[in-house]
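Q: I'm writing up a methods section and want to include an example of the input and output format. Could you take the sequence below and give the corresponding predicted C-alpha cells, formatted cleanly so I can copy it straight into the document?
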Amino acid sequence: MIWPAVICTFIGAAIGTLAVQTIDAAILERLLPFLLMAFACYFYFSPRVSDAESSRRLTPMLFALLVGGGVGFYDGFFGPGTGSFFAIGFVALAGFGMARATAHTKLLNFTSNIASLLFFALGGKVVWSVGFCMALGQFIGARFGSKMVLKKGVKLIKPLLVTVSLLMSAKLVWSQYPELFAWI
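A: Here is the clean output for your methods example:
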C-alpha cells in the first residue's frame, strides 16, 4: 500500500530538486515559519492525533499523488519540516495512528532525501563531507527515535512534534524577519 507513495515521493522530490536549481526559494523561506506554526497547532489541538487508527479520507493512490508527490516536491525544493508534513498527512488523510504515521514518514522522508541527493549530485551541487555527516545524524536519530516511538507512542511524539515545529518556526521567524526583533 505504501509503494505508490514512495514512487510519487521520489518523483516529486526529483522535480523539486530540479526546480530549486533554477528558481529562487525566497517565497517558501518566508512562508515556512507560519506553516510550521499551523502544523504545531494542529498537532496540539487535534483529537485525531493519537495512537488510535481512524478512517481513511483519501484513497491510497490519491494520498500518494497529493501527499507523496506534494511533500516530496517541497522536500526537494526546500525541505525544513518535511517529516511534520508527512506525519500530518498520514494522521489527517490516511487515518494512521501517530506511531504508524511516524514509521511511514521515515520511509517517505528517506525516499525524498535519496531522490534529492541523486539529482543534486547529477547537478554537481553536493558538498559530500557535510552530506555524510547529515546522513549519519539522520540515521542515528531515526534509530533512536523509532525505538522511543515504540516505547512511548503518542505521549512522546505529540509534544515533541509541537515543540520542534514551534522551535523551528521561532528560529525561522528570527532569521527571516529581523525587523521584528530590532528592539532587542
